[in-house]
Write a structure and sequence with these properties.
With 145 residues, this protein is an alpha+beta fold. 20% of the residues lie in helices and 30% in strands. 5% of the residues are buried.
Length: 145
């Protein structure tokens, strides 16, 4: 008999109204599948927080967690809560405890502008430039297009 349980979820409801200058609030949820079934109830405490070291930083200190398009909030910006999640396990519905962290995810606008907006503007101006070239000058029209 084989069973498989998803123990974490990453959810980010995106709001694109201010794109490319948007910031999202994302959630990372870690389940303790058997914590509410009586086997390991103490694994999820009543409160969840990121443990800070003596210098005030998180246990795994990583500076500037980002890629060319996104910046992930620092550990000081993360907030943790304990939630109850309903899941089907062994063909029965169970309410399981989970640790959920909320953190900001900010878009770095330069990446979107350089990859989408700037090329679109360049294509527009190059095609507009083609209107000023004599239609009989085929090599000149081909050189810009």
């Amino acid at each position: 008999y084989h069973t498989e349980e998803r123990v974490s979820t990453f959810r980010c409801v995106f709001n694109f109204t201010e794109m490319p200058f948007d910031a999202q609030q994302c959630h990372l949820t870690l389940l303790m599948p058997f914590a509410s079934l009586g086997t390991a109830h103490d694994l999820v405490p009543a409160e969840v927080s990121i443990q800070r070291g003596p210098n005030g930083q998180g246990a795994a200190v990583v500076e500037n967690v980002e890629n060319p398009e996104w910046r992930i909030g620092t550990t000081e910006e993360w907030t943790g809560t304990v939630v109850d999640v309903s899941r089907e396990l062994y063909n029965r519905q169970y309410t399981l405890r989970a640790a959920r962290w909320a953190f900001p995810l900010e878009r770095k606008s330069r990446s979107m502008v350089m990859n989408f907006v700037f090329p679109g503007i360049m294509f527009y101006f190059i095609s507009w430039l083609g209107l000023w070239i004599d239609p009989q000058a085929v090599p000149a029209r081909a050189a810009i297009g």
